[in-house]
Amino acid sequence: MKISLNQDPSYPETEIIINCPEADEEVLRLVATLRVYQKKLVGILDGERHLLDAKDILYMDKADKKTFLYARDAVYESALPLYELEDALRGQDFLRAGRSAILNFRRVKSVRPELGGRLLVTMDNGERIYVSRRYAGEMNAKLWELERSMLK
Predict the structure, then answer these.
(1) Fewer CB within 10 Å of terminal CB in the chain, N or C?
(2) pTM for the whole thing?
(3) How far is residue 10 CA from its own chain's centroid?
(4) Beta strands in 83-124 (DSSP E)
(5) Cβ neighbours around 69 below 10 Å, total
(6) pLDDT tens string for the chain (152 positions)?
(7) The domain that contains 68 carries what CATH number?
């Protein structure tokens, strides 16, 4: 894969063009990764609605029938239920960690296996989240896919 960067202050905005002979799995993954940078979520903090970049969300969880979005600097409430956020972010490196949690794979720093088949994930801000045994396979598959792609 050839990567070029053309920088010119006369460009009105950043534009990404992918030229390829065929849209294979690698190209589609690249496009999905780029799209997460455009995805916005609405988070409520102190009665104000904030537009948040999905890439800045570390993880989301549900507690006491409320959905929360965890960013590096704050915790926002979402009006959407967790399953709707999951649908909106499908294919964008957000993975289920349990029935009530979704994490941003791009913000994972490390993964450690725990007893009972669970995984302990450390996010890039130091927070730790357990991935249940039920969803550990998806996390391991994502890690394996990442390792394989680095070998190409």
Answers:
(1) C
(2) 0.73
(3) 32
(4) 94-98, 101-104, 108-113, 119-123
(5) 26
(6) 777 888 888 988 888 888 889 888 888 877 776 765 667 899 999 999 999 988 899 999 999 999 999 998 899 999 999 999 998 888 778 999 999 999 999 999 999 999 899 999 999 999 999 999 999 998 888 888 877 776 66
(7) 2.40.50.1020
